[in-house]
Queue: 4 jobs
Job 1
Amino acid sequence: MNTRTTGGVLLTGALLFSLSHAAYASTPIKAEVTKATSSSRQTSSEINVRGTWSTEKLEVGQSFTVSTVPVNGGAPFTWNASFPFTLDDGSRVGECTADQATLTCKVTEIPANYADKTDVHGTWWARARLQDAAIGTTEGTITLDGEVDKKLIWGDAEGNGVCTNDCNSAGHYEYARPENLKFGWTNDNNTVGWAIKWIVTPGTEYVVKDFDTRLNTTVKCAKSETWDPATTENVTATQIDDNTIKFTAPAESRVCITYPPEQMKVPEGQNSVTNHAEINGMKLEATTTVRSNGGTDGDGSEKPKPPVTPEPSTPNPEPSKPSDPKPSTEPSETPKKAEDKPQSVPTPSPEKSRGDSPKSPASTSLARTGSDLTPFFIGTGLLAAGLGALAIRRMSGDKK
């Protein structure tokens, strides 16, 4: 067996297991939908969805996805635009990418000031628009990471779960109200798109001019209350110059609309643009303010720092080292510590005491052995000999 090859295979397998394990160890982001509103039941009407997000700690690769369930073969609403995934202090941690009916907010970077923060949480919101697939329905479904999270009632302008506006029918094509109007909207690339809408009389020729952007030759004219394709006629106008077209309103038409094909850039330092148009001498003007199509915020808690250890104070002078544990012939001058209670000293017999000999403190050491005991035995022998001699002398005296 080639042990080197086997070892390499084992090492590779261990690394793959480790990497695979690490990939699944990421802390997820938990998201919720807290409120959803629908301004109307007509197509192109605005939808707003709001929610919260949270995670124990920010990690690259975390994400959450907000979407919907298709109806009538398509998405009942689609998101307006992508927007940055940012926090309270403006730090950018990723991107919320809008792709038709799918909005995915993903963490792609961790700012240095968030590397150690925990319990990171915030809010998110995004705009969408009702689509033709919603026609004939009364509600849609909002999903979070593939799971059903909330029902959205078309026309629920308050977000309370019931229709409050345009509730006489189910979802329908956009209203073709007869009105003279110039209006604009914000695109996903921070530009503004425009439309020119005006009341027409069938068989009348109209000259339409836009002073700020180019026009094309496509005009739509409605013959009913909505822009239902079955009752809407598409007209090809005559191009007079880049900014001017003319055409004759078709029979039974009530209102016509044209969409300039070019998007208007917002001048640097401004947040709005104005557009001017003219139809048969009638002037129309509109100012559109750039609106964000979504946003996020968030913050976290600072990781607790360990307490600062105080610097040690100036040390006290080193205490005296204890003397040799041999019995001392001098009384100790050093007071004992409170916890070192002295042991009681047995009272010596009268015949063994000497008035001029200080009492030695009782030793708390273990019994001594060897040469340390030699003086003790010698002293004991001399004492015994002296007592014996004294006894003999007393006996001799008694006999006299």
Note: The mean pLDDT is 79.
Job 2
Amino acid sequence: MTVNLNQRRAVEALRAGVPNRDVVRQLKPMQPELERRFAALLQETQENWGTERQAEGLLIEGGFGTGKSHCMEYLRHLALENNFVCSTLVLNKEMPLHNLARIYRGCVESATVADKTGPALTEIVNSYNPNLAPFYRELYQWAHRADKDPRIGATLFLFEDCKDENLREKIVAEWTGYPMKVQDLRAALKEVNQHKEYNISRPQTMKISQRFEFLSRFFRSAGYQGWVILLDETEIISRYSLQQRGKAYAHLARLMGLTDSTLIPGLASVFAITDDYAGQVLRAGKNDVCNVPGKVRDIKDEDISGDAGIGMDAIENRSLQLGKPTSDQVLETYDKVCQAYSQAYLWDAPPIENKREHLASNSMRQYVRSWINTWDLRRLYDYQAQTTLESVTMSYDEDADLQEDAPEIEEGATI
């Protein structure tokens, strides 16, 4: 028997409770309905290019340890396999859903593609040829429509025949969410006698959705089917202030393609959230369903109140509940984990008596980590352990630290 590094990485990830690609290769999530719905989402996203519509995204829910992050990693694998650009983002203090500009940057910076090893946008730009790119003319025409931020059309125009490596890097930074200085962009346009064609100003913060749409279309013109974004730990919304929660709900609805105010062709989104969020935050406790609309009504964005309501309704009524593991699924997973552990450490993992009694309240993560901990203690210390499982209680209390907005990216900042 030889050490299998892939299985070693898989076991280490399972021990930490952070699934990676090696985990999903060893342990495919046993969620057939989610897999079916995601396949349909990818198919509809491809088909909707002809109608300029956005396919309705997915919202999956489950308790702590039920495999939401595992499923998201598996969906990433499927997206890449189906020739989509894919971004995976964990919502946290640095990536708050109420700040769409930050979410956009996070999605761009985390984007990957199956046939490239580095950041997707940089890799695609390096091999991009406008003369050969399918749908480039459509992209160019869209970017120069009167209702679009002129900076999009201007940077695409400059990119088309750009030979200056420094300028090219600034354009990629602009598309990533680090805006060029106004004077630099105007100077670049002046060099090619186009400074009068574009009314360049500071980035239009109310039109971040246009940047999502631009990159979605750009990825299509580079030969990809679209752009999948996977956003995990959505329950962190509960820890924002009331107004911030309202913005976050609106952005969730818009990124899922549920609103009339924002539709992004080629974008397919999946959010993951805890299964008691609706009851604990939208209804009992914070009662956001009643409190949010009044709080966000006076925000500059006139559509945000209605869109926030759509987002809350999606969480309450459109979520796909992850299935609980059955007894047969637990036994099947046990066999796979046992084999992976044995090959990872060149050690025959001994049978675990009863493999832990199957209880509907136990999550798959609890089973897996108890097996690994039992084998670790036996392998390292020859100690026969009895593992006790405890449930984790999720806190939905507001957190002042999470409510602090970090400074916005200044013009001219580098990646």
Note: DSSP finds 17 helices and five strands in the chain.
Job 3
Amino acid sequence: MRHLYKSWLPGSLGLLLLAVPAMGAEAIAGTVRELDRIGNEMERVSAAVGPKVVQIVTQSLKVAGTGDEQPTGVLVAERGRGSGFFVAPDGYLITNAHVVANATRIRVLAATPGAPPAESPREYIASVTGIDAENDLALLKVDVQGVPFFDLTRDATARQGQLVLAYGSPMGLAQSASLGLVSAVERQLNPDDPRAYIQTDASMNPGNSGGPLVDLEGKLLGINTMILSQSGGSEGLGFAVPLDVIRQSYAALRDRGTVARPRLGIQPRSLTADLIAGLGLKQRQGVLVEDVEPYGPAAAAGLLPGDVLVSLGAEPVHTMRDLYRAECALSAGAPVELAVMRGPDMRLLRITPDAARKLPPALSAGGVTEKENLVFRLGMYGATLTPALASTLGGVRGGPGVLVLALAGTGLAGENAIELGDVVHGVNGTAVDTVETLRSTVEAVPGGAPIVLQIERAGMLSYVTPGAMPGAEQRLKKTSSMIRAEIRTDAANPPARGLQW
């Protein structure tokens, strides 16, 4: 019994049980009763929290990178699992942005309220309502009404040393709970990163991402987001985005589908002892202005690189975290006062924040399709180079063209002269400006004839001769003969019954 309790209780309670043999029978009975009471409370919390928690299963596409099992640059399909939880009775739920990144299909598996654990979960197809990439949050919607949910208006604050429960689907094991302590609150992983997390030693593993972190009353404290690990598994260093961030993101994502802070036009930096000494700064607290965007709000207000920002509006600014909070309270177009130290002098300036810039939509592997992007004969997936897309690349030299998003097969890696990130400008001297024109131009080249592409790579133009696949006519003949062969083979050797996709 002693070892059983010790295996699941956190450190301090586990040590308490080591002293049990030296206690009297009455004291032992009292300790057992107290542990039973704690266990009963946790059962009650799990019964209330469980129906609010879901498992998320995704199908997605990604471009393989260094360290993946597939060769770098190849477009590959993958399946993923994570967690989430309902935050409204009409089917809105919160998860991590990385759980649904590049997803082409999102399934949500939810427990049926009041049903026995053995009953199969209900399954829904979810759509993405909005993404807060900065805080790694995503708002999803499923078509359901009257689901149990976490009320985000209920205040709950994490306290160091507090007992907490982490829920989710570690390693795909749905409806799992783990117990631990709040190791720290307001934990910054980097002084120049304004985001702060709840740190906990409650066990978290891959698949826990997106699940709720709750107190012993079942109140939401945060969303399980990441672990620090050398082994890839839980080492007692888990981090959750706190409730106040979830609440702000949910309101913005449900209302506008996006989260955007007003823009000041500065590059901030945390003050360190080396910066203070090396730059001869008189100010010990504040945020250093490393750079000022030309013609931006800060430049118009008179800020200069080297200033130390000490307040914004009515809020003092001691750290990057303070600046982040103060910025979130600003409104675009509404002037606000700020105070900076310039050398030994304090200066009061007036700044009018701009609306956040609308970035061109990012190209993700999740949006790639064979119909729109595949150029079969070149063994690549491409995207038409629009002005907005060209600006994200820092501009291109050769004018219109097609950006290489990925290679189309593992056999092409290391053999195809085209690389991820190339821009194709021409085929055999004919300019191409869309995926459709590239596809039709290469298809028009007779089988066996050379194909010469003009490409741009890292700002340099060059000609390459890729090993092209057969033309459409030859490809059709090969496919037909292959199908006939497969039919004969299958007829002679019917497939075994069993696990199928």
Note: The chain has a mean pLDDT of 82.
Job 4
Amino acid sequence: MTDFIKGLKKFSIGTIAVAVVLGIVLIAFPSQCIDYISLIVGISMIAIGLIAIITYIADRTSSLPLVLGILVLICGIIVCARYRAIISIIVVLFGIFITTSGLVNIATSIRSLVFHGVAGWLTMALSVVTVIFGIVAITKSSQLTEGIVRFIGVSFIVYAVLGVVSLIQVKHMTDKVKDAVDSVSDIEVDAKEVDDDK
């Protein structure tokens, strides 16, 4: 289970890094990106796939980055090969992904409110914004303008920020669980020593 979480964390870090770069490109060069947004997304997917595969090669603790990396890499190659024909489809898929991610994070943030207070509210706010961005991307997929492209770029940045916040929260919860397990282990060791003394 620990290896699975570590593998998922490494894949998430790669996704966050690519999302930030892609968001900046879309915000800075919207007019150039309108005709090539599918190609940019395809290249980004290839980058994510390669990062995940390299991560697996460097640290073979979990095969999850390898599996996800290969899948994303293949999808990226397909998108690049057909980028002119699937611009609106890519935007819709992106919108669905962002909306789904936001809804999942809303559900998660409700629980986070109990454990993280202010950080939980931050996650909730970012999740709601992510859902709104996703819905706009879906409904405006056939009307790509510079404004919409910039809007999509901002949504990538928000997604990345939400990913960073989620990773920090997961680490915090993992540390708490680890401390609790260590405390129980220490109590068991002390109890055994007392029994041995008797």
Note: The chain has a mean pLDDT of 75.
